[in-house]
Specification:
Helix content: 40-55%
CATH class: Alpha Beta
Largest sheet: 3 strands, antiparallel
Radius of gyration: 17 Å
Structural class: alpha+beta
Distance between the termini: 51 Å
CATH architecture: 2-Layer Sandwich
Number of helices: 3
Order of helices and strands: EHEEHH
């Protein structure tokens, strides 16, 4: 099965921010799928890990069996670019961290009850 990267999120550094980057790629995947629709038959829109001389990195990619869905890939790349340009990653990261802290606090209090 072949694949084509449609992009990554413009935030964080691997490996320290892996959980944050994967969270953002999950958001990006949902957005791209909302804007572009489901991938054509025999294709998948997934987060994948690419190899690089500096280490592995996650990216959003289109997997396909036979014929490369060029039109869908271009549409997804455009949607990914728009998503990256319009998300305030720093604001979102603060919210994400605060939610995680609140969940941990609730879990500790809840476990004590």
């Amino acid at each position: 099965m072949s694949w084509e990267s449609i992009g990554s999120v413009d935030t964080g550094e691997m490996p320290d921010d892996e959980a944050w980057i994967l969270f953002c790629l999950g958001l990006a995947k949902s957005y791209v799928q909302f804007v572009c629709g489901l991938p054509p038959d025999d294709s998948k829109l997934e987060i994948m890990w690419g190899e690089h001389e500096l280490g592995n990195y996650p990216t959003l990619a289109i997997w396909y069996d036979m014929e490369e869905p060029c039109k869908y890939i271009r549409s997804c790349e455009d949607a990914m670019d728009a998503f990256n340009q319009h998300v305030s990653w720093l604001d979102l990261k603060e919210f994400w961290k605060n939610q995680a802290d609140e969940d941990n606090e609730w879990g500790e209090t809840h476990d004590e009850d």
